[in-house]
Specification:
This protein is of the alpha+beta class. It has a single domain, classed as Phosphatase 2c, domain 1. Helices cover 21% and strands 33% of the residues. The strands form 2 sheets. It has a 6-stranded antiparallel sheet. It has a 5-stranded antiparallel sheet with strand order 3-4-5-6-9, covered by helices on one side. A hairpin with a 4-residue loop joins strand 5 and strand 6. It is globular. The site of manganese (II) ion has 6 residues, from loops. Manganese (II) ion binds next to loops.
């Protein structure tokens, strides 16, 4: 998969995904939902790869979808955690924007990376908690950041190794072209599931 996500609200997101060894099952799954108030976006990496990893990651995405109307992001993550009980674990990075306040709430557990250009043009990169969703109770920490309309962001799973993050986040090229540049760093036949979302907040 490599395509611009279709937004009804001028948010721009280029989504890329390629499964380990080009397998049919992908352990990385994404969630993207937008309404007039903001975006809810998540990337989930099921432990390992193949069918079982995909099953765990899909269970998390389904839980996010079913609970997306909950006010608290931590509560959505708690429901997602319950969803992988008895399955493989999963890493998660999830965030929600509030268009009116120009704020972003972030929660990350495990090895997914998220970068954003903040309100003063500084690079924002929240550090995720160690561990993964496992179904066992765990502390869920969220962080809040401010951004500006048009702020760029990049989120990617650990299947992508990327040097020089800043050149993509501060690029003058449009989102799709920036996405293609990042894509050129991905192996034709990757050794892990690779997913990234390169985007730009609604102007
Ligand atoms: Mn991975």
């Amino acid at each position: 998969m490599n395509a611009m996500w279709q937004s009804d609200f001028d948010t721009e997101v280029y989504v890329f995904q390629r499964a380990k060894h080009l397998q049919r099952h992908c352990g990385d799954q994404i969630f993207l939902k937008e309404d007039a108030t903001g975006v809810l976006c998540a990337l989930v990496d099921g432990l390992g790869s193949g069918k079982e990893a995909e099953k765990a990651a899909k269970a998390v995405v389904e839980a996010i979808d079913a609970n997306s109307s909950l006010k608290s992001l931590a509560d959505i993550v708690a429901r997602s955690n319950e969803a992988v009980a008895g399955l493989r674990g999963a890493a998660i990075a999830i965030w929600r924007t509030d268009w009116a306040k120009q704020k972003l709430i972030y929660c990350g557990i495990g090895n997914i990376r998220f970068f954003m250009v903040g309100e003063d043009d500084e690079l924002v990169y929240p550090i995720s908690s160690t561990g993964f969703l496992s179904g066992r109770r765990q502390k869920i920490r969220t962080q809040e950041f401010s951004y500006r309309p048009g702020s760029r962001f990049l989120m990617h799973s650990d299947g992508l190794t990327l040097a020089g993050i800043k050149k993509y986040l501060y690029a003058s090229a449009n989102i799709e072209n920036t996405g293609h540049c990042i894509e050129s760093n991905v192996a034709e036949v990757p050794e892990d599931d690779v997913t990234f979302l390169m985007g730009k907040m609604k102007c």
